[in-house]
UniProtKB/TrEMBL annotation:
Residues 199-367 form the PCI domain. This is Eukaryotic translation initiation factor 3 subunit M. One of its GO terms (molecular function) is translation initiation factor activity. It is found in: Cytoplasm. Belongs to the CSN7/EIF3M family. CSN7 subfamily. Belongs to the eIF-3 subunit M family. InterPro entries: COPS7/eIF3m, eIF3m, eIF3m_C_helix, PCI_dom, WH_DNA-bd_sf. One of its GO terms (biological process) is formation of cytoplasmic translation initiation complex. Pfam families: eIF3m_C_helix (PF18005), PCI (PF01399). Component of the eukaryotic translation initiation factor 3 (eIF-3) complex. Component of the eukaryotic translation initiation factor 3 (eIF-3) complex, which is involved in protein synthesis of a specialized repertoire of mRNAs and, together with other initiation factors, stimulates binding of mRNA and methionyl-tRNAi to the 40S ribosome. The eIF-3 complex specifically targets and initiates translation of a subset of mRNAs involved in cell proliferation.
């Protein structure tokens, strides 16, 4: 015959209080431990009956450090215990109380982050899902990123969530300072992840634009110098990036007058606005600097030749003579077509080669910088295309009217 046992929702919480109390007083002997355990359980019972959930959280978390460091407690049991504590946010009488409880839990879990960081992150994700407050969710996620910095295994838990960052930011409705802190935390995690160079550069390009050069950013923008320089180096290193907006960012522009990073800014200007000749002169004067940033001279020459070809394409009227290419890229005549093919395969140039007349006929090229002048040029082209389409429509309509009129006249003559 089945036995029916009367249970309540509060029992898991009281069981957690009892087990942690027993663990805390394990070395005190039964005479000392039993009264203390009974006292804590009674106090917990009072908090439950009175609905004092913040006080209950404080009580339950008091011995949480012992749980996290207890060698006899399995990770599964520890996770279950901490999840019971997290569940307190669902019992809070208001979002503000739930947020205060969440802050207490986060503070405890981010203390001594080197101990079981992966498990702590899992618990924080459980807390995230339980919280009703959007600002609370943003806080918990940010704390998970802090733990992710503890090591590769911990980072692996959060990296898959980075693809949803834009959706998170929109969902949470957080302001620019909070977004800035979030993006910076992500970049610092990705910086040490192998095979994630593109993602690292992507988030640097999310972080740096949060500085708009306003008076409000005057004190904070100086802290972005290291990330601004890192973004430049990643762009120069990349073999498949030939366009960026870094020059237009105030966080990057400040490097032009910085004693330490001014050469790095100059290098960016060369790659985005000048040709191979300028790079070679820069390299001669700054070879040690380039090596210090892990830049390989031969790879830089390869990229700079392609950049120079793009510059030629942007300044020509659709046709580039072989002679102009050999001069700009500092190559022989028989190498021109090799570099044209390389540009096409890199998807930065669409063109046809007229070998007879030694011309490259360009139909499309990637703009190294796409700022206001490029937008204005695009607007002008769209205006011309719109006018051409309107003229074509008018011509078609006029021809149709003429044709319809002619058919009508033929009908009258038949009658």
């Amino acid at each position: 015959m089945a036995t029916i046992v009367n249970t309540t929702e509060e029992e898991p919480m009281l069981a957690v209080v009892r087990s942690t109390a027993e663990l805390a007083w394990a070395d005190g002997g039964a005479e000392v431990a039993d009264p203390e355990v009974a006292r804590l359980c009674a106090e917990a019972q009072q908090h439950v009956l009175a609905g004092r959930w913040l006080d209950m959280a404080t009580l339950m978390l008091a011995s949480a450090d012992l749980l996290l460091l207890a060698p006899r407690l399995s990770d599964k049991d520890l996770e279950c215990t901490l999840t019971v504590i997290c569940n307190l946010v669902t019992k809070a009488g208001s979002e503000d109380e739930a947020l205060e409880i969440a802050k207490l839990i986060c503070a405890k879990l981010t203390h001594q982050p080197g101990e079981k960081p992966t498990l702590r992150i899992k618990v924080l994700f459980s807390l995230y899902n339980l919280l009703p407050s959007l600002s609370g969710k943003a806080l918990v996620y940010r704390k998970a990123l802090e733990l992710a910095a503890a090591g590769k295994a911990a980072a692996d838990c959060v990296v898959p969530t980075f693809k949803n960052i834009d959706a998170f930011v929109a969902y949470w409705g957080i302001g620019k300072p909070e977004q800035r802190d979030l993006f910076l935390a992500v970049t610092r995690i990705l910086k040490d992840q192998k095979g994630m160079t593109k993602e690292y550069f992507k988030f640097l390009n999310k972080y740096l634009p949060t500085f708009d050069g306003s008076a409000d950013d005057a004190d904070a923008i100086g802290a972005a110098k290291e990330e601004a320089a890192a973004a430049i180096i990643e762009f120069v290193k990349s073999s498949d990036l030939y366009q960026c907006d870094l020059l237009d960012m105030p966080a990057v522009a400040q490097l032009e007058k910085d004693e330490k990073y001014q050469p790095v800014y100059e290098l960016l200007k060369i790659f985005l606005t000048q040709r191979l000749e300028s790079y070679l002169a820069f390299q001669t004067a700054n070879s040690t600097l380039l090596q210090g940033y892990g830049l390989v001279h031969e790879e830089c020459i390869t990229k700079m030749r392609l950049m120079s070809l793009l510059d030629l394409s942007g300044h020509c009227s659709g046709e580039i003579p072989y002679s102009a290419i050999t001069k700009a890229l500092e190559i022989n005549d028989d190498e021109v077509e090799y570099w044209i093919v390389k540009a096409i395969s890199s998807k930065i140039l669409d063109c046809k080669v007229d070998q007879l007349n030694q011309l490259v006929i360009v139909s499309r090229h990637t703009a190294r910088v796409f700022g206001m002048p490029q937008w204005q040029s695009l607007r002008s082209k769209l205006g011309v295309w719109r006018g051409n389409i309107a003229n074509a429509i008018n011509t078609i309509q006029a021809n149709k009217v003429t044709e319809d009129g002619g058919q009508g006249m033929q009908g009258l003559m038949i009658r």
